[in-house]
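Structure ticket #2291
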Amino acid sequence: IINSAAKTLYMSGGQIRAPIVFRGPNGAASRVGAQHSQDYSAWYAQIPGLKVIAPYDAADAKGLMKAAIRDPNPVVFLEHEMMYGLEFDVPEVEDWIVPIGKAKVRREGTDVTITAHSRMVGFALQAAEQLAGEGISVEVVDLRTLRPLDTETIINSVKKTSRLVSAEEGWGPMGVGAEVVARVIEHAFDYLDAPPLRVHQEDVPLPYAANLEALSLPGVDKIIKAVKQVMA
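Resolution: structure written out below.
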């Protein structure tokens, strides 16, 4: 994927394309151990020549998969295994396409922006609902595509809220959240009222034991804690 597909167009001087979709499960898989539970989002998103998609709901999964299949170059399509049993509404549109590289504001707010992708979007929305009861207005931005990352939508949201919390299931160092924070610092530093915070998995291989796995993974409570910290 990285050494051949991602480089074919560049190394052929634009003469040869690699129209491939690499589709597979990504993220925690509920007590199957470290070798079967890990998040590859940041690994692939670093590579020039690849597009990387990590949808949250069924409508985006359908629309982005169609866009990926029609793309003339390689696309990595990351699905969260623990979401396969969930149900979402899907628009009854004959040719439903979601453009690659466009984030989606899932919930509008004025106090703080949460960026998330894949399963973490659901946790972010749950956190936003709970925080609303405490008078904190949260905007949730579903990244949907990790490469290319929709910097414009993120920046526009942060300019409105002046605070940022990134949420991802992967590890923190060199992660998706680190890239989101870097872009906000580069493009919207003067709009920030507090340092951005990252919510992510603990920096260890994901444990097998249920209690340790739960401690390692990010969720609603950790997102709420981070939001309250940037609001303090």
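Closing remark: The chain has a mean pLDDT of 96.
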